[in-house]
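JOB MANIFEST
job_type = single_chain_structure
chain_count = 1
residues = 297
[input]
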Amino acid sequence: MGQPQSASSILGSLQAKGSVTEPAGPIRRRAGDGDPGRSRPGKSVGAVVAAAKVLRTLHGSERPLNASEVARAAELHRGTAYNILRTLQAEGFVGYDDATRSYSVSLHILELAYGVLRRSGLMDLARPLMHAIAETHSVSVYLSKVLAKVLGPSSLLLLDWVGVAFRTDLHVTVGRQYPVPAGASGVITAAFGNSSEAELEALFSQVAWYQKPSFPDFLARVAEARRSGFAVDRGAMFQGITLVSVPVLSPSWELLLILTAAGHSHDLDTDALGPLSRAMQSAAGRLSESVRLLRLG
């Protein structure tokens, strides 16, 4: 397998495509302006909303669920939940185990998710930047998307990771949703997101850290992240692991993505953190510049 393409060459190819037109100058817009689908979503279709609840319920469960369990968790009538489950099974989005009479999300969802990522152009741009940081600084690098509040307040979805600095699968897996505020990425979410202090405090009380700071200490880290543009967690989230996170912002300063580097704390001393944080900020800046060319959904 050859070396990953550079981000510059991929960005150039995206700009050259006829389906993507770069604006002549910088245009600052509020999130959702000019997009009827976001500013005026229209009337919800009840059957689709119910099916989405069922899929989220199955996705959030650590084990397969029967129809009654799905109905209770999704707050649906059992007959409604059963019909939705059978329809989703027939369409290939849900699997069914005859022995336990239980349902789970099928791998067909993964196929759709990878298709979205591939067509968005995000990974083509992000992966070369992530590989460069991982190889230069001997860390693992993670890319997470900030999810809309409909999927849970201030939650993150891990899109991809590179590097072999430590056993990342002990802590995170691609495609899983993670609550914040927790760790360096949680500090960034609080610093550049739109949650109020009361919302942050309520969320903060629900998440686990290895050595959890007090909420005032957490707010002090948030203030420092706003000033510096990055956050560092030295083993407070995961024992012996140092995390460095930076925001990827839209032209209107909406928090879209978070880049996080992780490595063994004994390898990331103060002298190493300076170059690493600058490299992370540079990569995040490159991604921010390219956001208007991507389809992030």
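[summary]
The chain has eleven helices and eight strands.
The first strand starts at residue 94 and ends at 97.
exit_status = 0
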